[in-house]
Amino acid sequence: MRGVALRKTVMKPLIRATSLLFSVLFAGVSFAQHEGHDHAASDTTHVHEVVIPTADVHDGHPNEATGEAHDAHGVAKFNPGEMIMGHVGDEHGWHLWGHTSLPLPILVYNTQRGFSAFSSAHFDHGHKTHGGYMLHEGKLVATDAADGTDAHHASENEALTKATWDLSITKNVLAMLVSVVLMLLIFLSVAAAYRKRGTSAPKGLQSFIEPIILFVRDDVAKANIGPKYERFMPFLLTVFFFILINNLMGLIPIFPFGANVSGSISVTFTLAAITFVLTLINGNRHYWGHILAMPGVPKPVLLILTPVEILGVFLRPAILMIRLFANITAGHIIVLSFFSLIFIFGEINAGLGWGVSIFSLVFTIFMSMMELLVAFIQAFVFTFLSAMYLGSAIEEPHHH
Amino acid sequence: MTTPEKGRKGRLDPSTYMRLSGMGLTMMAVVLAFTFTGHWLDGLLGWRFPLFTILLALVGIAGAIIHLIRETGRK
Fold first, then answer.
1. Model confidence, pTM
2. Shortest CA distance to A344 belongs to which of A64, A80, A34?
3. Which of A304, A307, A316 minimises the CB distance to B22?
4. What is the pLDDT of residues B10-41, one digit of tens each?
5. Which range has highest mean pLDDT (A4-18, A51-65, A147-161, B4-18)?
6. Is the peptide bond before A307 cis (omega within 30 degrees of 0)?
7. How far is CA A74 from the centre of its chain?
8. Distance separating alpha carbons of residues B16 and B72, to the nearest angstrom
9. Inter-chain contact B67–A308, Cβ cutoff 8 Å?
10. Chain B: residue nearest A391 by CA?
11. Which of A54, A107, A314, A390 is 20 to 30 A from B60, alpha carbon to alpha carbon?
């Protein structure tokens, strides 16, 4: 009873605070979008008014990573939408600061042109074409224009784009490789510690990782899968630590961290697909029997329930995918929105920008703390639900 | 109000609410899937009255509710 009362007293103000926060935030975002729109409109009028034959055509196109669009006078305008989406999404090349970014390898296979590899620096942040390719709104597309043509004037060859497979080492791929190296370092050292120390008390990194491993084993695997949990432990532990480490890496804003790996739908899709395939492979007679013809249900109801259950087989991994993606991406967007507020107000008045920055900083710190919690919770939820689906797939019929 | 399932140590068993955490989306997807199947069938048949859209939408709603009752009633 105490637990319930405590939950009520704690949860109510928390929910109220969160909803207040969201209403403030969304007011800010809609205001920001409105602002951005106005700027874009005024940009074009500027360009139309000042017709200089030698005008640099690059300006007036937003830089994805910095969210800056220049008008004809070269004055930087802040576009929060571009900035946030540039940070949350994937990139060819890793933006570091200002106009500095780390070029990454472009690996592209085209069924007609064959394989080609070059540095993303040749694209000049999407301003130039290279090797018959260019970046259009961050996507690699095929073009017939010669190397070094201005990408904003080159036209896309849509038939060739359809035959293109972009296998580039993008920002997210590189961040994922960094996380793999990090995981290998952690777990090889922990494994070595177990080999050396045997069953004696854990020490150092080992004593930090051990309770987490035991938590996944006891509260996630054993609780949901039952006695046959051992064969799924490698998968569950890998998924848990992969998501946790990538969530935490995404919260550190400096290179080589800060990519939005676990908030990328392709990554969460792959993770959910592994759970889905494992459930299908391991599903026993009892499991499929419950899906195709739920025992103890009258025939007419079965006619409705069976399609629902079959849909459920696909829906469960789909929801798994969406939940992780949405939670992590939302966290990143909220933090970036608070930062944007500083520059939105700073453009109106420098003093106002400084004033707002105090509130922005406080909220950003608060959100970052929340995100630390979310990073753990989402890794736990994904692993827990995966274990639960696997558990239901291998569950033996119990006789009453 | 039903009494929530208690796990070890008297805590709420996480599997109870974790299992139901995706219920909203599931219900929505079930209703939409049935409705669009009906819409597709109507397009195929070309009747003047969109019988299957309406019928399957209702069946979808019924299915979602049956599913909800079964899931929440399970121990």
1. 0.78
2. A80
3. A316
4. 556 777 778 788 888 889 999 999 999 999 99
5. A147-161
6. no
7. 33
8. 9
9. yes
10. B15
11. A390
Residues of A within 8 A of B64 (CB-CB) are 308
What whole-number distance in Å separates Cα of residue A222 and Cα of residue A396? 15
Cβ separation B15–A223 shorter than 8 A = yes
The number of CA neighbours under 13 Å toward the Cβ of A248 is: 13
Tokens, residue A292: 């195709």
Quick check: A106 and A120 in contact, CB under 8 A? Answer: yes
Going by C-alpha positions, the residue among A379, A392, A378, A381 that lies closest to residue A232 is A392
Identity of the residue in B12, B22, B30 whose CB atom sits nearest the CB atom of A308? B30
Interval A242-265 mean pLDDT: 89
Q: Which two tokens stand for residue A317?
A: 């991994």
10 Å CB burial of residue B4 (0-12, 13-18, 19+) is: exposed
Residue A304 at interface with chain B, using a CB cutoff of 8 Å: yes
Residue A360 amino acid letter: S
Give me the phi and psi of A140, to 5 degrees please.
-80, 120
Which residues in B lie closer than 8 A to residue A395 (C-beta atoms)?
A: none
